[in-house]
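In this supplementary section we document a worked example of the pipeline. Step one takes a protein sequence of length 97 as its only input; no multiple sequence alignment statistics are reported here. Step two produces a three-dimensional model, which step three serialises into structure tokens for compact storage. The input and output of this example are shown verbatim.
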Amino acid sequence: MNLAGNIANFSSSASPVKNATLTATHKETGTTHVVNSNEKGEFQFDSLEPGKYTLKVSHQEYSELAGIDFWVTRENLTRLPTIYMFRKNEHSVILCQ
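The serialised model returned by step three reads:
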């Protein structure tokens, strides 16, 4: 099973965040898989076992994101929506309806 998506800067016209480290941890087994985003902010995990995972995204210039839960099924590809990161020195509030 595969998981794919992309990482973008929330405050900079959604510019890609390259070299972000993404860690997917299988909730039942504790097995971890680590990948880095490419120049376009894209990432892909290959060969994930089906099940529930939690995702952590880190980068030295951005605030860490943790606790992003997702399911991997027996289908070929799970695609996450764009994950937006904030630079560490930026303070923003997001309002949702």
